[in-house]
Amino acid sequence: MYAVIAFAYLLLPVAYTFVFSFNDAGKSNLVWRGFTLDNWLNPCGAPEVCGSLVNSIAIGFIATAIATALGTLIALALVRYRFKGRASTNLLIFLPMATPEVVLGSSMLALFLNLFVPLGFWTIVIAHIMFCISFVVVTVKARLASLDPRLEQAAMDLYASEREAFRRITLPLLAPGIAAAALLAFSLSFDDFIITNFNSGQVNTFPKFIYVSANRGIPPQANVIASAMFFVSLAIVVIAQLAGRARRKG
Amino acid sequence: MSIAAALGDTLGESGHTPQPARRGRFVPYLLMLPGLLWLGVFFLIPLVFLFLTSMQTAVPGGEIGEYEQTFHIANYIEVLTDPSYYVPLFRSFVYAALATLLALAIGYPLAYFIAFKSGRWRNFFLVMVIAPFFVSFILRTIAWRQILADEGPVVAIFKSVGLLGGETAGLYPSATAVVIGLAYNFLPFMTLPIYASLERVDPKLVEAAGDLYASGFTGFRKVTFPLSMPGVVAGTLLTFIPAAGDYVNAALLGNSKTSMIGNRIDYAFLTTNDYPTAAVLSFVLMACILAVVLVYVRRVGTEDLL
Prior knowledge:
The structure holds 2 protein chains of 2 kinds.
Chain A: H1 2-19, H2 38-41, H3 49-80, H4 86-98, H5 101-114, H6 121-146, H7 149-157, H8 162-191, H9 194-199, H10 206-213, H11 220-249
Chain B: H1 3-11, H2 27-53, E1 56-58, E2 67-69, H3 74-80, H4 83-117, H5 122-130, H6 137-148, H7 153-160, H8 175-199, H9 203-211, H10 216-245, H11 248-253, H12 261-271, H13 275-300
Antiparallel strand pairs in B: 1-2
Helix pairs in contact in B: 1-8, 3-13, 4-8, 4-10, 8-10, 9-10, 10-13, 12-13
């Protein structure tokens, strides 16, 4: 019973977002005006919805690719090597996650303003890579630490070179961790508003578009896109879970 | 256990196989170089710039947004003695603390339920906890406007059970709405680390407590709860820190009387182009959060947090 209430609290806003994607909204999508499929049939119908969505997806892909690469390399160094400065590296990884987004966003803006860097698409990408790296490191590190080092040793006992053993044993085993990290990075980047808002200049992203239009009325098309994203993400997670289960059984 | 590990363990699989230490003097540094360089240039150096900006003053006779470096430390005193800044700062910490308590009150039983009572549905419930993240955070916050509005379901329920008469509830916009929104937005950050530490509690320990005539509640209070403390600490920090800096909830669910420090920073930086004031506020926010976190961690006595 308790769990029902807790899940209702968690999922009620999601349900609202979904239901109001079918609203025959007119100007403001705050009050229910009747059911329609028009919004779903014409998701780009409202100005800027799709433009900002395309920006968000592009930023998400670039930031994810770079942050995943940089973060995975750091995770490899941290788990597989003992070296001087490990503790301070861990601290440097941890700090951005423990800093409020306003501080991250405003400090980057201070940097860009003082150096006269024009704000726009690329300053958003730079900022997103910065805050995604730590999350990638943490996710990949957890997976790496759970790998059995004896597997790699066994490969080397069978005359694989260190590089070969890494490429053919460790990397495939690490792949799910890297994939999870990339998904996390993408969803963080895609949904980020605060840091983006500080460093975006005139460029619109999907969350920024929603925030800015909140007071003059959010077009129901935004709900359509958010709902579609919800189901796509859910499908990815479910498929990943099923794939993991199948692999463990087979 | 660290906050980071709590999150990592929830997301990936956990396990602690000791890794062989490799030699190779330069390899780890080479591997880390690009990533750490990025964090250095775009995380650490910006903090220096933020600090420098906080001591700038307006160029005499210059345009709006033109500042020069004068190392004017008095900026801090001017800003911090201004009630339009220290009140929102104080408010941020009160709201964040209330939201953290609310999230703990909801998240702990939820994590307990998933860890011990969900049976084979465990993974399904875990996905449900993170599912809200799949919908834009701003849209979910806006949904609370509709839910808490006078025509919304919450007010309707209160009215039907007689808690409210004909008057309007005024739930939105209000401080209550802001706290509910904050607790809502960071609830998964509270639930997942607690779940991760509860999952590791050996049920045999609780059984043993029962064998020694502890009641169910005593068993929980003396065995399960202390063992879940690392998760509670991690969860409260992961909720409190972002909540204290958040301004989206205050902007979307509150009014001018519920402004938090983030709203002031955003306004000063982006609307009035008062960069030094914004930088001062940002720096003070960071310092306050750091202080609160340090005191808290000392208090609950969890060592090895990082």
